[in-house]
Amino acid sequence: MSTSAKKPRSGRPEDEDTKIRQRLRDILDGKLVTLLMTSATLWALFGDDIRLLTTDKDADTAFYVSYVIMLGLFILDIFLNSIAVDDYKYSFFFWLDIIAAISLIPDIPFFFNYITVLFGGLPYSADVTVNTSTGESQSGQNIAKKVLKSFRLIRLVRIVKLYKYVTKRDTEEQEMRLKQAQKLAKTAKQAAMNREMDPTRLGKILSDTTTRRVIIVVLLMVIFIPIMQVLETDNAPKYGLQQLFWMGWSSCTNTDQFLCDDPNNINWETSFGWYELVYRYTLCTIETDGKSAQYPLLWMYLPDYFQNGEIHEIRSIKKSDLSGIAWTQDENCSGKTVGSECNLRDVEMLLAVYTPDECKDKTVSGCENLQAYARFDIKTQSENDALMNIFTTLFVGLILTVAAVMFTADTQKILIGPITRMVLIIKTLADDPLKRIEKEEKTEDSDIRKEESTYMLEETVAKISALLQLSFGEDGADILSKNITSGEGELNLMRPGNKVSLVIQVIKVENFTLVSECLQEESHIFINKLSNVIHTCCKEWGGLVSKNIQGSFLLVWKLPEVSEKDTDEDDLSNPAMQRTDLANRALVSTIKTIAEIRRSAEIQAYKVHPRIISRFGPTFSPDLTIGIHIGWAIEGVIGSDFKIDPAYLSPHISVGYNLVEARKEYGCSVLMSEDFYGYLSVKAKNCCRRIDTVYVNYLPNTFGLYTFDITEKELPAPDTHYIGKLIKLAKLDAVNVENFQHKGVDYMFTLDSDITGLQQDIPQHFFDSFRHAYVDYISGQWEEAKEFLEKALTDIHEDGPSLSIKRYIEEKGKPAEDWPKSRELY
User: Fold this and answer.
1) How confident is the model over 101-121, as pLDDT tens digits?
2) Superfamily of the domain at 493-754
3) Is 346 exposed, middle or buried (0-12, 13-18, 19+ CB in 10 A)?
C-alpha cells in the first residue's frame, strides 16, 4: 500500500485542505462575520415592518435591494458553512437556514411577482388593480396574504443561528476531543464505543434534539394558529358599496340596461338623498369624536344617479346642502389600474368590490363583468399592522428563546446531567474498571440531586468501583489497569510484566499470631487499627500499599528512571534527587509509623484488655519489625480466570522479608540494606548505624546492613496533630518548612520531634565504641572487636547488633583464612 498522502478531488493534500477549511471556520467564527450575520438576521426579521411603519413608497427600492443583499448573505453563509463546518450540510441547522433564506423571497416583489406569474398566479398588486376575477378571488387572496404573513415568521429560525454562533466554539472543541479519542483508539470497536458513549456528545445530541423539537413546535404554532382562526373582515365598505350600487341604478330609464326592464323598478332615491348617501359613504370610517378619517376614500366606480344609473367614475361629491364639494377622488390613485405616480403602496390600499348576485349565479346573462369598485387609503392600518408585527416577532422570539432555554435547562438538569454523569462513570469503568471515580463536590444542589432517580444508580456504581479499587489498593489497581485491554475492559493475563525500581518496605507484627489467638473475633479490629496507622503514614509520605497478609504489610515507593540526559540540579526536577527524596520519605514513614502506634490511644487501650493482660501482662505493645530495601521488581498480575492478585516478582522483594526475619538475630526494629542506605541524604545517613555485612544466596554480592536506633520513649503530640504529619521541635517552631520543600523532606531529620526524640537518649560514645568494634570485626581483629563491644554493651546492655556480633565471634573463635568478611542473612 502506498504511503503517499491521500488527495481529495480538488487535488490538494488532505492536510492542506484541512488547513484551508480551518482558516475558513476561523473567519466565519470571527467577530466581523458574526456581527455582519447578526445584523443581517435582525434586518431580515424587522426590515419590512420598519419599511411600512417609517417610510414612504419612494424608499421601497432601497429596501428591496437590501433584501436582495440579505438573501445573498444568507446563501453565501449556507455555502461557506457547508464547505468549512463538519456535519453542517443537510443538518437541522442547514435546513433552517435554507427556509429562512426562502422566506425572504416574498418580500422582494420583482422576484416574487415573477415566480407568481410563472406559476399562473396574480401579481402582488391584484388587491388594488381591477380585473375580471377580483370579486371571485378576493377572499382567497386574503387567505394567501395571511399564509404569507405567517410564513414570514419562519425567519425567526435565524435566532437559533445566533445561538449557534455563540456555542459553535464549545461544540467544535467537544467534537475535536472526540475525534482525537477516536484516532487514539487501537481498534474500530473502541473508536465506535468512544463515539457512542462520549458523555459530552450524548448530552449535546439530546440537548440539540430538545431544542429542535421546541423550535419546530413553536414555529408550527405561530404559523398555523393564525391560519386556523376565523378570518375577521370589515365588510362595511362592501355593503356600503352595495347600497350605492342599487341606489344609483334605481334612476336608470334605458330598458337595455341591466334590469331596467323590470316592471317593478322604481326610483328609490332623490338627488338630495343621493348626495347624502354618497357623502356618508365617503365618511364611513370617520371617528365619532370628529377626527379625520382613518381610511380615506380614494376612488369610486359605480352607477351614477345623475347619469341615468350608468356605471363610471364618480370624481367628486357635493355636500347635501350643495354648499360645496364634500369629496374629490385622488387622481393619482384612481382608475382601474393604479399607476406608479400614486404615493401609496399596494398594501396601503384596499379595493372594495360588489357584483350583483344575479350576475354571479348567471341568472341574468351578459352581466358577468358588471362590478362596482371603491378604493380606500389604509396606510394607517398598514402601519398599525407593521408595528404589531414587530411586537409579535419580538414576543414570539422571546417565547422561542425562553422555551428553548427552559426546556434545555430542565432537560439538562433532570435528564442530560444525570445521564451524562452515568455514561461518564460507565465509560470510565469500561476503559479502566479500577480507575478512581472522583466524588462530586458538595453544593446547594447536592440534597436535590439525591432525589433524582439516577442518583442511587450513580452511587451504587461508584461504591462498587470504590470497593473494587479499595480491595486491590492504589498500587494494585494501577498494576491491574496496565493489564486491562484498553477500550475492551478485559484482563490480559498473558501480558508481560513491567520492570520497575522500588523502595521495598516490609512491616511485620511479630506478636500478631499470639494476639489473634487472644482476641479471636476481635483480632480484625486490632489489625485494622494498626493498618490505619501504617497505611496513613505510608500514604502521607508518598508510598503505596501493595499487600496485607497475616500481620505483614508490603509497602512500596516507585522510583523514577534516571538517564544520562538528566540534569544535575539540586532540586526535585532531577530524577536522582527524586530518588533520594523517596528514600528519605520511606525512612520518615517508618519512624512515624513506630511513633504513631506508640501514642495511639486506640491501640494502647489493648494494654488493659482482659485477654491481653492474661497473656502478655500490663506491658503489652504491638511489636513491629520493619525491613527496607531498594531494588528492581516485575509488576504484573498473577492468577487465572478464577482468582487474580496484583503482585511484584523479584528476589529483592525476598530481601525485604529476609530483613524482617533478621530481627531474631539482631534484635532491631528497623533494618535497612546498603542499597537503600546509599540513596539517603546525608542528614538521614547520619541517623543510621551500620551493624553488619551480609549476603543472601540468591544475590551475587554482599551488602551492608543498617539500622535506625530507637529508644522505648513514647513521644507526645499536639491535640491538632494528624497521623503521620510533621511535629516540629519546640525550639524550631518558627522555621518555615516551605523554604526547604524544594529539596524534598530532608528537613524532617532536624525539625521533627519524633525522629530526633527517638534517638535523643542514646549516648554518642556508644556509637563510637560500636564503630570501632565493627571495623575490627570486619578486618578480622576479633579480640579487639570484643573489647569495644563490651564498652558498647556497657552503655546499652541489650543492644541487639552488639550481642549478635559477640555471639558470632564467640561461636567461630577466630576468623577463617577464607572468611569473606560477611555472613549469611537468614
Assistant:
1) 888 888 888 777 777 666 655
2) Nucleotide cyclase, GGDEF domain (3.30.70.1230)
3) middle
For 508, the enclosing helix (H) or strand (E) is strand 498-509
Pair 244, 372: CB distance under 8 Å: yes
Backbone angles phi, psi at 650, to 5 degrees: -175, 145
Task: Return d(Cα 673, Cα 483) in angstroms, integer.
Answer: 31
Write out pLDDT tens, residues 28-64: 878 888 888 888 888 888 898 899 999 998 899 899 9
Q: Pseudo-torsion of CA 574, 575, 578, 583, nearest 10°?
A: -140
Q: Pairing relation of β-strands 624-639 and 670-673?
A: parallel
Whether pLDDT at 93 is above 80: no
- CA triple 486-490-496, angle to 5 deg: 75
Distance, CA of 800 to CA of 663 (rounded, Å)? 9
Surface-to-core class of residue 583, CB atoms within 10 Å of its CB (0-12 exposed, 13-18 middle, 19+ buried)? buried
Cell output for 659: 530483613
CA angle 718, 723, 728 (to 5 degrees): 45
Q: In the 8-state DSSP scheme, what is residue 503?
A: E
Close Cβ partners of 648 (under 8 Å, ≥ 6 residues apart): 502, 504, 546, 554, 556, 633, 634, 635
Record the cell numbers describing residue 501, joined without a space. 525500581
Distance in angstroms (rounded) separating the CA atoms of residues 741 and 342: 90
Q: What is the pLDDT of residues 133-165, one digit of tens each?
A: 444 445 555 555 666 666 666 776 666 655 555
Task: At 148, list the grid cell.
Answer: 404569507
Taking each helix axis as running N to C, give the angle between helix 31-54 and helix 60-84, from 0 to 180 degrees, rounded to the nearest 10: 150
Mean pLDDT of 523-531: 91
364: helix, strand or coil: coil
Q: Which residue has the higher pLDDT, 502 or 404?
A: 502
Helix 379-411 and helix 199-228, axial crossing angle in degrees, nearest 10:
150
Assigned C-alpha cell, 188: 474500530
Does 796 have pLDDT greater than 60?
A: yes
> CA–CA distance from 814 to each of 289, 772, 785, 806, 823 (Å)?
139, 18, 11, 12, 14
CA distances from 250 to 101, 253, 275, 299 (A): 55, 9, 14, 21
What does the domain layout of the chain look like in residue ranges?
A: 14-228, 236-377, 493-754, 763-826
Taking each continuous run of H as one helix and of E as one strand, the counts in the chain are 30, 17
| Concatenated DSSP letters of 43-86 | HHHHHHHHHHHH--GGGHHHHHHHHHHHHHHHHHHHHHHHHHST
pTM, 2 dp: 0.57
C-alpha to C-alpha distances, 587 to 265, 375, 626, 758, nearest whole angstrom: 129, 105, 10, 13
Residue with cell 552488639: 802
Contact 249, 303 (CB under 8 A): yes
Q: How far apart are CA 595 and CA 533, in angstroms?
A: 10
Give 734's DSSP letter: T
Residues 207-212 have a mean pLDDT of 72
